[in-house]
Structures are given as C-alpha cells and as structure tokens.
Design brief:
It comes from Paenirhodobacter populi. It holds the Pfam family DUF3500. The protein is of the alpha+beta class. The strands form two sheets. Strands 1, 2, 3, 4, 5, 6, 9, 10, 11, 12, 13 and 14 form a twelve-stranded mixed beta sheet that branches. A two-stranded antiparallel ribbon has the order 7-8. Helix 8 runs antiparallel to helix 10. It is globular.
C-alpha cells in the first residue's frame, strides 16, 4: 500500500534526474530526456495533433451547435487591456516579437505541462526583467478573481517548492513558464494570452466584457507545500473533498453506474483509456479534438441535494474566473444539468486515491490522483494531483465566441 506521506518517496541524489541536473539550465536539462524514444514519439504525436484543424472535444466527432453566445458578462476588459499593454511596454523589441502572435496562431494550442522544455516558443518568464514579471502579476490579477489569483500564484510557488526539495530551482521555480500573447489587447476585439509549463496550462481569451479561461491544466506534486520562505499551503483540497463527498452520497445503484473502473490502473481499461503522460486524463495537452465518451451516472437521476453538490463541485474548478464570467459559466452548466454525467475510477473510501470526470455539452472537468513523476511512488497517491478543465463542442480557447463575433461583424457589414 502506498504511504500517505510524500516524504517516503523523495528521490535520492543518485537518481539521474536529480544528481546530474544541478546547475543545468532548463533547455540543457531537457535535451537527454527529450532524446529518449518515448519522448520523441510523444513529441511527434503532439505535433500531429497540433496540426489538425481545431474542432473541439466532442462525444462523437461533430460539435453541437448553438451552445455559446456573445454576452456582456461584466468582465473589466479595460483593466485587462491596460495591464497587458503595460507588460508589453516593459519587453524588449526581441521579447515582444517572440511573445506576441496573431490571434489564430497555432502556438495557442501548443501548451504542455511537464517541466521539460518541449519547445522554446514565446518567452520564458524566468528570463524576463523584474519589471516585466511584476507587470505579469497585474495581468494575472486583471484576469482572475482574488481567490483565483492566489491559486495560480500558489501553483507556481508549488513548482518552486519542488525545486527547493531537490536543490533544482534552476529547473523548477515560480517563473519556469512560457508566456505568449495572441492578438492585440483590445476592449472590443478578441485577444488572449497563456502561460504553460510544469503543472500549469492557463489559456485566456478576452472578448469585450466576456472571457473564457480554457483549457486549463493545474497540478502539484506534492500537494502540501512548505517553502523555505516559511509560506505553507495545500492545493486542491476542495476539489478532492467535494468530489469524494458527492460520490459517497450517491445510492449504491448510482455509485455502481458512476464507477467505470474499480482500479486506478485497471486491466480492463482499453488501450486508449490510459497513457504514461496523462494517466487517466482524457483532456490533457494537445487533446483539443479528442472524442470523449459520455459515461457514468446522469445528474438527471440525482436528488436535488446531489444536483446542488454537483454544481458546487463544478464551481470549485472555476474559482479562478472573475466573478461575472464565473457566474455566467455556472448558469450555463446548470442549464445543461440534465445532460451532465459524473463518472469515477477507483475506490471511494476516505483513504482511496481516485479519478472523477464531469461531462456535459458545455463542460468537461477531470480530477486525478497520479503516481509519481518527481516522487517514487509507483501507484497513484493523494499527494500528486492533476486537475483539467475544458469546454467541449468548440469553445476551448474561446473559439466558438471568436466565430460568433466574426459572424456578427460580417452580418453587420452586409447590412451597412
């Protein structure tokens, strides 16, 4: 049985990725790992997927139309534009050229979540000036709620903690992330930005007073963080506790319906169901067009209290969204509650590691307890957590809203 204390799984100095990595820059550290056959194959597969025309995650390969509409959701677009313009002004000409891309540039779908430097696109926050990094906090604050700002900062600091744990802050620190801007900051036209790197993939689309943050990847290993500075916190406790409470509240028949596999690495899983990079996750990096089956128990069969708990669980995945867009997002999820499915892998005892998946035409959320990457546990454990959110049927990266905006502009032009 896997210990519940991550300290029992700290890798020794003799482990190659630890002892041989001291003092290396991230690119040099990554080169031998990326040369392995497994990494070469993964990178080639990611490139193939990135080159596919964007469709979006669907359950059958065909996006359902009419799900996403333009609206005033109360987002403070002026603040976001001002913050981004201020940050861009701090960059050198070369940094701006590397960081800023056209709205439809393929790089927007090029994010990933390992600490390895799979590409050198955009700029790395760790290489920017202190003034630029200070301005980045203003950009992040302008595009998140107060709780969300804290959450993303803590995720970045959790990466620093892992670096401190192994004396590898040259590779893992709070600034170890690619940064790119897409389009020109505008109060009326679509634009956006993202950061990505170890345990963070954060994609933001802004369109007037409406915005989308999707897809997102968030993770931490371990999930209890104690920095050398004395700061300490734990991550994803709400997502974990509320997901388990909902599963435990279901009647036995619904629990059985929700449980698609009883073991986290179940021999009954088909080949497409599990892979070394994402483990149980289906919506990870480069899975923008994945066909994902609808499985599990339908919220239509839940009690009113369980339906409320499901909505509350969904909202924990969106606390980083600003208040107005978050309220609009939860209303949208509630409107499709009768078409929302909740599925589960693993046990549902208090100490069991588990995976769960929430899926409807407008939302796909995943929570997973992982086995070790920088810790040596070979079985999933509660101290390594990955959380993914996506918007199916074409609105990842706000693509459905961009299309609606362009269609409206074309129609207005026809009538001019």
């Amino acid at each position: 049985m896997t210990s519940t204390d991550y300290r029992d799984y700290i890798l020794p100095e003799s482990y190659d990725r630890v002892g041989k990595s001291h003092g290396l820059d991230p690119v040099t550290y990554s080169q031998p790992v990326l040369a392995t056959p497994q990494a070469v194959a993964l990178k080639a597969e990611w490139a193939r997927l990135q080159d596919e025309p964007f469709i979006g995650i669907t359950h059958d390969g065909t996006p359902e139309p009419g799900l996403f509409t333009l609206a005033d959701e109360g987002f403070d677009v002026e603040l976001a534009v001002s913050a981004m313009q201020a940050m861009l002004a701090t960059l050198t000409e070369a940094e701006r050229a590397a960081a800023q891309k056209p709205l439809d540039h393929r790089n927007w779908r090029g994010w990933y979540n390992p600490e390895l430097v799979f590409n050198t696109e955009g700029v790395r926050l760790e290489n920017l000036s202190e003034a630029s990094r200070d301005c980045f906090w203003d950009v992040l604050s302008s595009c998140t709620s107060a709780r969300g700002f804290q959450k993303i900062r803590r995720l970045m600091k959790a990466n620093l903690f892992l670096g401190e744990l192994y004396d590898l802050t040259n590779i893992m620190n709070q600034w170890s992330y690619h940064f790119e801007v897409f389009g020109n900051p505008s109060v009326s036209e679509p634009w956006g930005w993202h950061i990505y790197g170890h345990h963070v993939g954060f994609n933001v689309l802004i369109l007037g007073r409406q915005m989308v943050i999707s897809p997102t990847f968030m993770g931490t290993e371990p999930n209890e963080v104690v920095l050398k500075s004395g700061e300490f916190f734990a991550m994803f406790k709400e997502e974990e506790a509320k997901g388990l409470a909902l599963m435990q509240s279901l009647a036995p028949a619904l629990q059985e319906q929700a449980t698609i596999f009883t073991l986290m690495e179940d021999p009954a899983m088909p080949a497409w169901r599990f892979n070394f990079a994402d483990q149980r996750h289906l919506g990870g990096a480069f899975q923008d067009n994945r066909i994902v089956p609808v499985e599990g128990a339908c919220a239509r069969d839940f009690t009113p209290e369980q339906r409320h708990a499901l909505l509350d669980l969904c909202e924990t995945f969106y606390i980083h969204w600003p208040d107005g867009p978050r309220r609009a997002r939860i209303r949208q999820i509630e409107d499709h509650l009768d078409r929302t499915f909740f599925s589960w892998i693993g046990g549902h005892g208090d100490d069991d590691p588990f995976y769960y998946h929430i899926h409807s035409p407008v939302v796909m959320l995943e929570f997973d307890h992982h086995s070790g990457m920088w810790l040596s546990n070979t079985e999933p454990a509660k101290f390594h957590i990955h959380v993914i959110s996506r918007i199916p049927n074409g609105n990842d990266y706000g693509r459905a809203l961009i299309a609606a905006h362009r269609a409206r502009n074309a129609a207005e032009g026809d009538h001019a």
